[in-house]
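To: structure desk
From: M.T.
Subject: fold request, one chain
Message: Could you run this one when you get a chance? Sequence is below, nothing fancy, just the single chain.
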Amino acid sequence: SSVKKILSEIKKLSKDEEKYSQFISQYNRALKEGVYQDYTNKESILELLRYKSTKTEIGKMTSLEAYKERANSEQKAIYYIVGENEKVLRNSPLLESYKKNDIEVLILDDKEIDEIITPAIGAYKEWEFKDITAVEPPKVEQSEEEKKEVETKFESITKKIKDKLGDAVKDVKVTNRLTDSPSCVTKDAADAQMAAMAHLFRQMGQAMPESAPILEINPEHEIVKKLNGCPDESTIEDVSWILLDQAKLSEGMEITDTVAFAKRLSRITAKAL
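Reply: Done. Structure tokens follow.
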């Protein structure tokens, strides 16, 4: 009874945008924890949450209801990306196909809590939460025949890149989710579900091996086009690692060997001059 009364008062406060933004700046995280802990009042708390998104200015936030109202009639899902830095997330290559298709993505930059709680939410008013790093990109103007043709054309180089990178990647494949960037890293659905568990293990002081990402390359980018059919194996190896490390850096992830990255970049730059 007390919880419902408090939530009712917070809902009244939410009608005053200026005051509520001050409230949210202090208590948004507590509300997220409430979603995770209080299933009975889950829907009421979700209505009170506010999120940064690709369709809000820096410093502004949106409600889930407003997100739904802005979406097109065919969407039926709430897309999000999780990380530690708002600026990095807003410039992620993974957003390119969503921007192209005018699909809003929530920017969740409190990774410590968002990585655990958001997958556990499941859905808001029948709209499922979907992590864009673990789902297929929005539809693009490409038929199945065209997609297969591109995969066949770049089959040899994707295999070579996978061989060069070894266990550093789970897989390498061409993608139609990119427009300006040469590459990006994603994870499969199983790895996305394991992220929350990995965080809990770290909280208990136990190590859990990190899953290798999937490297996706843009067949329309000049770097990938030139790499396809390149006869120089050393160049293929250097560029393969640069594509992976560059994609990781774009997502705010750490790269395993910064010295090696710098050396590879220097070698490729020297060849280009």
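Reply (cont.): The first helix runs from residue 2 to 13. Let me know if you need anything else for the meeting.
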